[in-house]
Specification:
By secondary structure, the chain is mainly α. The chain has helices spanning about 10-25, 30-40, 50-65. The chain is globular.
Amino acid sequence: MAPVRISARLPVDLYQRLEDRITTNKLSQTEAIIAAIAAYFGADNMVPLVERVSQLEQRLAALEQD
């Protein structure tokens, strides 16, 4: 199935959080939005690999601090 194009308007503070996630995790805007929507709906298998690796790195860092 071909991807579907959507557009949305975001509040400025939410957009800034999205941009922060993009910068921190070196994602494209599309990857970050797909990851957020997939996580919201519990479709973890749709989360881009780079995002999943980043989440694992953050969890590992938190465990190492304990």
